[in-house]
Write a structure and sequence with these properties.
Blueprint lengths: L8 E2 L23 H8 L3 H12 L17 H16 L7 E9 L9 E10 L9 E8 L21 H14 L7 E7 L7 H12 L3 E8 L16 E5 L11 H8 L7 H16 L4 E5 L11 H6 L4 E6 L12 E3 L2 E3 L8 H20 L8 E3 L7 E4 L10 E8 L7 E6 L3 E4 L6 E8 L12 E3 L9
Parallel strand pairs: 1-16, 4-5, 4-6, 6-9, 7-8, 12-18
Antiparallel strand pairs: 2-3, 3-5, 7-9, 10-11, 12-13, 13-16, 14-15, 14-17
Length: about 475
């Protein structure tokens, strides 16, 4: 059947007959892609450790610290970051483009006067003529702070917050430098996070103004510690924060429909989080990605928030157990207890696992088709089956589409059915009892992000945009 055909495809699900249990499709990892598995394996724990110790060695990376000192301050740090990425870009076969993203930050609550700020950005353009228009961003912030966010002179090694995230980004850029993935990847070390998410805000705003199609953004912020404040070690869990209903003053018409149909947990960030979790199950099984249904932690914020504000899909990685004695603290010893964000409190084995989860997620997303658009669930009559429709994907080599479903109280997809290269299909399940979405499937079996359907009451209505 032609992929543009509106003809209805109907499929019988043997697993649903006679009360048979649903197949937990999301819990059964599909076959691993050898190239993605190689990228995951190539992550180096020793390089991550070297990066963190070097960044901490600049004394402070406060955004208002010295820019002309060759050994101390944010200027020395960003020059070293760029030099390291330049070296990876210069290797034979590398396709990485490295540049400074400079801007002037006007005075704000944590910036007393106008000051130049610089993000370090490495771009790996996609090789597919269609898919390269899709951009996937991974970030960490390279600035740091001590107890007083306005003190630009104190020692602020920032080993975990956020040399850990910066090290992940740099490692991924170098590991991926020679890859030939369909979609475009952007590896970004941003400044000004501690002064108000300034570097990420600048980049996201410019990307929005230029019409950059940022399909997904992942920020890594405080991802290097595996010990809680009692000393207990757990190097197997990584939190992933994913926003549901956007925290806007007004609820959009689309979100009103989502809320009316129980789709409050099917926001784009939460669909991204599910896809990241699936990639981790497949390629880094020793790690558990714990999805948290929140934008971020209480009293905290990260560089994904400016991307969300610009309408992009963004999530945040943070370690599972935070020890606040080693975040935003002056380096000191009190009653025999060491305070300060020092390299000795980073678990480098855990950090390497975090980097591998990132690698698996980014490579999987970059290899997959774009998410289907215009997905609708037909609600024109009372019936015990569910019919969905969507617009054909732009990719010429797409294999088809699959419908995924879960019970309304389940957090992850419980079943999936490939329905072929069609734009409308029906399943013998009641829309009243399940949540549905549609994913595109690439020629090699790669799954796109899932798209939650809005309701369609008039079959003659114009296709959704």
């Amino acid at each position: 059947m032609d992929r543009h055909s509106p003809a209805l495809a109907t499929f019988t699900f043997v697993a649903l007959m006679a009360g048979a249990p649903l197949v937990l499709a999301a819990e059964v990892p599909a076959a691993a892609d050898p190239e993605i598995a190689r990228l995951v394996r190539d992550v180096s724990q020793s390089r991550l450790e070297t990066t963190i110790r070097t960044l901490a060695g600049f004394g402070t990376r406060h955004s208002l610290s010295a820019t002309d000192d060759p050994k101390r301050g944010i200027g020395a740090a960003r020059r070293w970051i760029k030099a390291r990425l330049d070296a990876c870009a210069a290797e034979a076969g590398a396709r990485l483009k490295v540049e400074f993203d400079e801007f002037v930050q006007e005075p704000s609550a944590r910036v007393p006067k106008a000051v130049p700020m610089v993000n370090v950005v490495a771009t790996l353009e996609g090789v597919d003529p269609v898919a390269k228009a899709r951009t996937l961003v991974v970030s960490g912030h390279y600035d740091s702070m001590c107890s007083n966010v306005m003190n630009s002179e104190c020692d602020a090694p920032g080993a975990n917050d956020d040399a850990s995230g910066t090290a992940v980004v740099m490692e991924l850029a170098c590991v991926f430098a020679k890859s030939r993935l369909p979609a475009t990847l952007v590896f970004m070390a941003v400044a000004g996070e501690e002064q108000g998410l300034l570097g990420a805000t600048h980049w996201a705003k410019v990307a929005h103004e230029r019409g950059v199609n940022v399909e997904a953004m992942i920020t890594n912020d405080i991802v290097g510690n595996a010990h809680d404040d009692t000393g207990r070690r757990d190097a197997t869990v990584l939190r992933l924060f994913a926003e549901g209903v956007p925290a806007d003053k007004q609820v959009s018409e689309e979100w009103q429909q989502r809320l009316a149909t129980g789709g409050e947990n099917d926001s784009a960030p939460r669909e991204l989080a599910r896809t990241i979790r699936d990639a981790a199950l497949r390629y880094v099984p020793e790690m558990t990605v714990k999805i948290v249904y929140r934008r971020d932690r209480y009293l905290r914020g990260g560089d994904h928030i400016p991307f969300l504000a610009e309408g992009f899909t963004a999530v945040r990685f943070t370690e599972a157990h935070e020890d606040f004695r080693h975040q935003h603290q002056d380096v000191r010893i009190v009653d025999g207890v060491q305070f300060g964000d020092l390299p000795q409190f980073v678990d480098f084995e855990y950090l390497s696992r975090v980097a591998r989860v990132n690698a698996a997620a980014l490579a999987s997303l970059a290899s997959a088709p774009s998410a289907p658009v215009g997905v609708r669930i037909e609600t024109m009559r009372l019936e015990n089956q569910t019919t969905l429709s969507w617009r054909a994907n732009p990719e010429p080599g797409i294999a088809g589409y699959e419908i995924v479903w879960r019970e309304t109280t389940a957090p992850f997809w419980q079943g999936a059915e490939f329905v072929g290269n069609v734009t409308r299909a029906s399943v013998p399940m009641s829309k009243d009892d399940y949540l549905f979405s549609v994913r595109a499937v690439g020629g090699g079996g790669q799954r796109s992000l899932a798209t939650y359907p809005l309701t369609l009451r008039n079959p003659q209505a114009a296709p959704a945009k």
